[in-house]
TrEMBL record:
InterPro entries: BphY/WalK/GraS-like, HAMP_dom, HATPase_C_sf, HATPase_dom, His_kinase_dom, HisK_dim/P_dom, HisK_dim/P_sf, Sig_transdc_His_kin-like_C
SMART domains, per the entry: HAMP, HATPase_c, HisKA
Pfam families according to UniProt: HAMP, HATPase_c, HisKA
Main location as per UniProt: membrane
GO cellular component: plasma membrane
Reaction(s) this enzyme catalyzes, per UniProt: ATP + protein L-histidine = ADP + protein N-phospho-L-histidine
Name by which UniProt lists this protein: histidine kinase
Designated gene of the protein: lcoS
Keywords: ATP-binding, Cell membrane, Kinase, Membrane, Nucleotide-binding, Phosphoprotein, Transferase, Transmembrane, Transmembrane helix, Two-component regulatory system
Molecular function GO labels: ATP binding; phosphorelay response regulator activity; phosphorelay sensor kinase activity; protein kinase activator activity
Top-rank taxon, per record: Bacteria
Domain HAMP as annotated: residue spans: 184-236
Location(s), subcellular: Cell membrane
Keyword Transferase: yes
């Protein structure tokens, strides 16, 4: 089955609507014109007949009768004057048989002094006929009968219909041309969008739709461009993410494979073999943490992921994590302190996920703070939000790197992350958890002066 193009459908629809409107207009005009024309002819006949009747009423006689007949003979109308019995007293022309039956005037003629229209059906009757009564000294003595042929009226209306058909043909050509132009202008952007979206579907994310105007089609084109921008950015992020994951996996796997082969072949003495085994264990643990973090981040980025929300005392979750991680800070010689808020800070959140935020931030601070340094956790209320700051005295972050530290697998310096054992996922997990809670993250730093990581969460309504 052949499928019609959108332009063809629109053109046919527009043509059908225009044709319907035109036909309705012609029908209304035809009915109105035919009625008004027939009414005008009947009114003119009544007026002429009434004029003759008044003259005959004042000047009754052979001369007046002859005068009426002669006047109508010159106009082309057919006139007859009959008495009350139907006897013809005067006539402008010989009467045809179909006219004689109208000479039997009944009492209707006397009732309507202005005259009466006997028939006005121009479609089926050959004449429009009127009766105009003649009164003399208050007595009805005769009737003026006028005949107007309906053939000229039918010719006029036939000419009107012919002109309407010609106009319809002209309108058809014009409307088809107009619909072709309009349909092309309307569907050309749609064809362009089809080509662009097909290219995007095949992986060419550089294609864009030319946005013209501000109508609905322009809005659709802008939406397609925004979608292409998002897909292009997502594709770039995905490629970078896969490259980073490959790199992160390749390094520990290289260590594990190399040292395991060395152990298998019995290289080195006991101390060397123990060192190789420790390296394998360390890299395997690092690989496990990396995969766990990746799995957790992927889960949290799924639309179906749900937090287990409940009223949470933010200070208690921070203090619990600080108590749990204090030994690791002591082992490295780092002072860890908490500046609690003067009041409980309650939020609607997932306690376990929020604890993961504090663990990641504190672990990040511990790894980047040298022995003898200090890490401070500060809680306070500000502008209807609960704020948690984690400040360290580590090496700091270059200002130009701050906007990117929350990206997945992003490392300020690859050697720095390798030295400190980070994989670049901890801060990305922090950002995702905080955003799921409707909060915001931020960071401030100067190279050599440490860094401050800030978490803002909406307070629970009182």
């Amino acid at each position: 089955m052949m499928r019609l193009k959108l332009a063809t459908k629109l053109g046919l629809l527009l043509f059908a609507l225009l044709s319907l409107l035109y036909l309705l207009l012609v029908a209304v005009l035809y009915v109105s014109f035919s009625r008004s024309l027939a009414a005008q002819v009947a009114e003119d006949l009544l007026h002429r007949g009434h004029g003759h009747a008044e003259v005959l009423g004042r000047r009754w006689g052979e001369e007046a009768l002859h005068h009426v007949a002669e006047m109508e003979r010159q106009t082309g109308l057919i006139a007859a004057v009959v008495d009350r019995t139907g006897t013809v007293l005067a006539q402008s022309d010989p009467l045809a048989p179909e006219q004689v039956r109208y000479l039997k005037v009944d009492a209707r003629a006397a009732v309507h002094r202005e005259g009466v229209v006997v028939t006005r059906n121009w479609r089926t009757e050959p004449y429009i006929v009127t009766w105009s009564p003649v009164f003399r000294h208050g007595e009805w003595v005769a009737t003026v009968v006028l005949f107007e042929p309906t053939e000229p009226l039918r010719r006029d209306l036939a000419a009107f219909k012919w002109a309407s058909c010609v106009a319809f043909a002209f309108m058809t050509v014009l409307s088809l041309a107009l619909t072709a132009v309009l349909s092309k202008r309307l569907t050309e952007p749609l064809r362009e969008m089809t080509a662009v979206t097909s290219a995007i579907a095949e992986g060419d994310y550089s294609q864009r739709v030319d946005v013209r105007g501000s109508d609905e089609i322009a809005c659709l084109a802008a939406s397609i461009n925004r979608m292409a921008d998002s897909l292009q950015a997502y594709r770039a992020q995905q490629s970078a993410f896969l490259a980073d994951v490959s790199h992160e996996l390749r390094t520990p796997l290289t260590y594990i494979q190399g040292y395991s082969e060395a152990l298998k072949k019995g290289y080195g003495d006991e101390a060397q073999r123990r060192a190789m085994a420790e390296t394998i264990h360390r890299e395997a643990s690092r690989l496990t943490r990396l995969l766990q973090d990746l799995f957790a981040l992927v889960r949290m980025e799924e639309p179906s992921f749900q937090l287990h929300r409940e009223p949470v005392n933010l200070g208690q979750t921070v203090e619990a994590v600080v108590a749990r991680m204090a030994p690791a800070f002591q082992d490295k010689g780092i002072a860890l302190t908490v500046e609690a808020a003067g009041e409980p800070l309650w939020v609607d959140g997932d306690a376990a996920r929020l604890e993961q935020v504090w663990i990641n931030l504190l672990d990040n601070a511990r790894r980047h703070t040298p022995a003898g340094g200090r890490v401070t956790v500060r809680l306070f209320r500000e502008a209807g939000e609960a704020v948690v700051e984690v400040r360290d005295t580590g090496e700091g972050i270059p200002p130009e790197e701050l906007p990117r530290i929350w990206e997945r697998l992003y490392r300020v310096e690859k050697s720095r992350s390798r030295t400190h054992g980070g994989a670049g996922l901890g801060l990305a997990i922090v950002k995702r958890i905080v955003e799921l809670h409707g909060g915001r993250v931020g960071a401030e730093s100067e190279c050599g002066k440490g860094a401050t990581f800030i978490v803002r969460l909406p307070l629970r309504p009182a």
